[in-house]
């Protein structure tokens, strides 16, 4: 398992950031698990000429997925915005923070929503033209599955379609025009003074 060093990444190959969140919350499968993202990414991306940066939000990779493929670089945690700005594509579970990070960085996404709230987020990103939503198939036992070949096609589609990156960058400019934390503080203080 290799650790990430940006200076060792090949500038000629696309960088894909895979963020699964917690792959598995317990020994028993739960609705919140994002293990399906690890499974399909390891199967499909290992054979592509890309560099994959895998982060799990301070969680371990389940042992059965080790060792990871040679074109994968793993770190339990990485600074999201910095990484999103450096990569060509984000693959994630559709959490609000991940969706906003991608839009703020102007980076298109392939999203595997693992619960209904995340599916709503993912469908919204897709409707903006800034990414693709691939809802996993869920079996009667709650197991989630995504077919590798259609996923691979979607990854290559996003990497090869400038319009998706252009849309993501358009929303980056819109979001950044809102004024960020400083503007939020000013609005809150103004509201607090009016409310008192």
Write a concise synopsis of the structure shown.
The protein has helices at residues 35-45, 80-86, 96-105, 116-128, 148-160, 162-176, 180-195; strands spanning 15-19, 51-55, 72-75, 89-92, 109-111, 131-133, 137-138, 144-145.
Termini, distance in Å?
56 Å
| Helical residues, percent | 40-55%
Sum up the overall morphology in one term.
globular
- Named at the architecture level, the CATH assignment is 3-Layer(aba) Sandwich
Largest beta sheet, briefly?
6 strands, parallel
On the 0 to 100 scale, the average pLDDT is 90
Query: How is the CATH topology named?
Result: Rossmann fold
Could you state the oligomeric state of the chains shown?
Answer: single chain
Number of helices: 7
Explain how this protein is built.
β4 (89-92), α3 and β5 (109-111) form a beta-alpha-beta unit. This protein has one domain: 3-Layer(aba) Sandwich (Rossmann fold). The strands form 2 sheets. Strands 3-2-1-4-5-6 form a 6-stranded parallel sheet, sandwiched between helices. A two-stranded antiparallel sheet has the order 7-8. By secondary structure, the protein is an alpha/beta fold. It has helices at residues 35-45, 80-86, 96-105, 116-128, 148-160, 162-176, 180-195, and strands at residues 15-19, 51-55, 72-75, 89-92, 109-111, 131-133, 137-138, 144-145. α1 packs across α5, α2 (80-86) packs across α3 and α3 (96-105) packs across α6 (162-176). The mean pLDDT is 90.
């Amino acid at each position: 398992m290799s650790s990430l060093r940006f200076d060792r990444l090949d500038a000629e190959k696309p960088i894909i950031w895979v963020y699964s969140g917690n792959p598995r919350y317990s020994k028993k499968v739960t609705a919140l698990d994002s293990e399906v993202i690890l499974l399909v990414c390891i199967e499909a991306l290992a054979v592509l000429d890309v560099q994959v940066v895998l982060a799990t939000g301070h969680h371990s990779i389940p042992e059965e997925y080790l060792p990871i493929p040679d074109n994968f670089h793993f770190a339990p945690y990485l600074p999201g915005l910095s990484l999103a700005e450096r990569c060509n594509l984000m693959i994630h579970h559709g959490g609000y923070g991940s969706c906003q990070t991608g839009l703020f960085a102007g980076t298109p996404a392939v999203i595997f929503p693992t619960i209904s709230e995340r599916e709503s987020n993912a469908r919204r990103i897709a409707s903006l033209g800034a990414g693709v939503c691939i809802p996993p198939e869920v079996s009667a036992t709650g197991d989630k599955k995504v077919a590798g070949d259609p996923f691979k096609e979607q990854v290559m589609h996003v990497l090869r379609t400038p319009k998706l990156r252009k849309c993501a960058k358009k929303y980056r400019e819109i979001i950044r025009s809102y004024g960020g934390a400083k503007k939020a503080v000013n609005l809150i203080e103004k509201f607090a003074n009016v409310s008192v």
